[in-house]
């Protein structure tokens, strides 16, 4: 049931326990038990909301920053990743294979703030060799969800 | 002017669904639970393969039986999922949906006066296709107490020395019923003893919620007397692509191919290329859709239990078949009133045979949100009916 449960809450974290129990064909207690285990084990890490900020009047700028760093003896990339992800404006940090090492996703209110972050904070870190900043112009799909999708049932109303 | 219409065709009743469809179509804001096709879009990698086929200029006829590569993949698929061995060269015919396979299959084996046994409630095409093929349909009225499975007793009662074919429509539309291994073996013994053929319509084979579907063709001694029908519509959400197939002994496929060749030429080429991709890389899509259907099925069964609406637990396809006899109305009256008062369309059980009287077909090929809305209205409706009694 674990995998099925995760695939349901991944799409809808607001679903209540009694409904989950019905969909999975188990008791509510079993669902409760499994979810608390998943939380304790750090498998479920949060219940976030996917927001299409473009539709609000709030300005946000998102940038993807490719970072090349020198790995540190004994710590590899972890230490560098930690120094970067501790900034609250950093939304995500991934270790990447290929042309660069860390992918940093940064969210700020203005372009200038992003520029400042890169030049003042990121580039000045000792182990950072180089950065390349890409700005996101439009989000089409995020977290498996197509934004701005209008759903229309194309089927005939009754078919055999 | 003299009578221009074929008497045989004129005598065939139009589909009961059609009549109801006309009423529903006039209601603009009705929500429907009346659809017999998946709500999912065809998985993108399959559609992409169709587009690619166009781009490469694959816009010509294929061989009559269908692309060799597709027949090989169908053969692999049936081996992988049901342990069946069909030779791609002469035991598989690619058709325009499962529907064509039903029609062509019956026409290939029927002689005038042969009887075709049709268990009902079941899909609307069997009886007309049997009649058009020149057969006499013999209807078996399945019972809710048997979970709408075909029992050996019911079959024996229907068999005569003119019986040629038994239609075996499982997993079933409209009831959601399945036949399990021991059910099939008991039926198979009679089939073999009485020396008849089976047309096993397994279009919903990929959508079962108890055990994996078993084909009657896999029962000892049955493959040689089975016309197996399957297709891409339900499993891969590909209804509009119009693609199905039949597997049968080569003597039968040879005759079916002849009819198919003259009537159709070949199944749509683009669809055939897309179907190769579906069979090669679509197992995980089917599993995901199946899981989703199962959640909705559990949701509906639970909702019916809470409403006190009688319904046997169906383990296949994407339909539930609740009983509405307690309200003292015919299925059609119930469905019409429900549509008029609550604006929800369901299909009266009688659209699938007279013995569907007292039942409704409710499809769960809809999003959970949609189902919840409809169930809310159903609850309101039956509460009102119960209070007025």
Task: Provide structural commentary.
The complex is a heterodimer of chains A (160) and B (389). Chain A is an alpha+beta fold. Chain A has two domains: 2-40, Arc Repressor Mutant, subunit A (Orthogonal Bundle); 56-138, 2-Layer Sandwich (Alpha-Beta Plaits). Chain A contains five helices and six strands; from the N terminus they run αααβαββαβββ. A four-stranded antiparallel beta sheet of chain A has the order 2-3-1-4. In chain A, a hairpin with a 6-residue loop joins strand 2 and strand 3. In chain A, helix 2 packs across helix 3. Chain A is extended and about 65 Å long. The mean pLDDT of chain A is 93. Chain B is of the alpha/beta class and 389 residues long. Chain B folds into two domains: 7-42 and 284-381, Alpha-Beta Complex (Aspartate Aminotransferase, domain 1), CATH 3.90.1150; 44-281, 3-Layer(aba) Sandwich (Aspartate Aminotransferase, domain 2). In chain B, 43% of the residues lie in helices and 13% in strands. Chain B has 13 helices and twelve strands. In chain B, strand 5 (163-168), helix 8 (181-194) and strand 6 (197-201) form a beta-alpha-beta unit. In chain B, helix 3 (44-55) packs across helix 10 (269-281), helix 4 (68-82) packs parallel to helix 10 and helix 11 runs parallel beside helix 13 (368-388). Chain B is globular. The model of chain B has no long low-confidence stretch (mean pLDDT 96). The interface between A and B is medium-sized, with 15 and 26 residues.
């Amino acid at each position: 049931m674990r995998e099925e449960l995760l695939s349901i809450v991944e799409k809808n974290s607001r679903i209540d326990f009694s409904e989950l129990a019905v969909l999975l064909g188990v008791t509510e207690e079993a669902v409760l038990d499994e979810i608390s285990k998943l939380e304790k084990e750090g498998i479920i890490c949060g219940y976030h909301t996917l927001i299409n900020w473009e539709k609000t009047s709030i300005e946000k700028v998102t940038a993807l920053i490719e970072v090349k760093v020198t790995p540190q003896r004994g710590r590899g990339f972890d230490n560098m990743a930690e120094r970067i992800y501790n900034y609250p404006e950093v939304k995500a940090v991934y270790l990447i294979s290929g042309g660069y090492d860390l992918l940093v996703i940064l969210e700020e209110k203005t372009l200038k703030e992003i520029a400042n972050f890169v030049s003042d904070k990121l580039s000045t870190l000792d182990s950072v060799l180089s950065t390349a900043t890409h700005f996101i112009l439009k989000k089409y799909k995020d977290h498996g969800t197509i934004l701005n999708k209008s759903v229309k049932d194309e089927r005939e109303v009754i078919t055999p | 002017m003299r009578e221009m219409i074929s008497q045989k065709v004129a005598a065939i009743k139009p589909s009961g669904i059609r009549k109801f469809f006309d009423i529903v179509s006039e209601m603009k804001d009705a929500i429907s639970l009346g659809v017999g096709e998946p709500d999912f879009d065809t998985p993108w990698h399959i559609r992409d393969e169709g587009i690619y086929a166009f781009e490469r200029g694959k816009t010509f006829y294929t061989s009559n039986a269908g692309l060799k590569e597709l027949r090989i993949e169908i053969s692999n698929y049936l081996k992988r999922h049901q342990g069946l061995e069909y030779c791609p060269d002469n035991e598989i015919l690619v058709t325009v949906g499962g529907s064509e396979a039903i029609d062509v299959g019956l026409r290939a084996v029927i002689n005038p006066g042969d009887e075709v046994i049709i268990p009902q409630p079941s899909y609307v095409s069997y009886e007309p296709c049997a009649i058009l093929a020149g057969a006499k349909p013999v209807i078996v009225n399945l019972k809710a107490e048997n979970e709408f499975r075909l029992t050996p007793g019911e079959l024996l009662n229907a068999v005569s020395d003119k019986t040629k074919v038994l239609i075996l429509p499982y997993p079933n539309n409209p009831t959601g019923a399945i036949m399990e291994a021991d059910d099939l073996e008991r039926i198979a013994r009679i089939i073999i003893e009485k020396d008849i053929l089976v047309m096993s319509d397994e279009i919903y084979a990929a959508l079962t919620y108890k055990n994996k579907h078993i084909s009657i063709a896999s029962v000892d001694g049955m493959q040689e007397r089975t016309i197996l029908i399957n297709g891409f519509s339900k499993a891969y959400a590909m209804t509009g692509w119009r693609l199905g197939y039949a597997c049968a002994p080569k003597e039968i496929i040879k005759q079916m191919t002849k009819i198919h060749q003259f009537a159709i030429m070949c199944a749509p080429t683009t669809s055939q290329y897309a179907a190769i991709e579906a069979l090669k890389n679509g197992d995980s899509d089917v599993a995901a859709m199946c899981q989703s259907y199962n959640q909705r099925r559990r949701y509906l069964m639970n909702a019916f239990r809470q409403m006190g609406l009688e319904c046997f637990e169906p383990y296949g396809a994407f339909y539930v078949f609740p009983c509405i006899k307690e309200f003292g109305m015919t299925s059609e009256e119930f469905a019409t009133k429900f549509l008029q008062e609550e604006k929800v369309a369901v299909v009266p059980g009688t659209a699938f045979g007279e013995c569907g009287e007292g039942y409704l077909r409710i499809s769960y090929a809809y999003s959970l949100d949609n189902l919840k809305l409809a169930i809310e209205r159903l609850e309101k409706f039956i509460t009102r009916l119960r209070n007025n009694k």
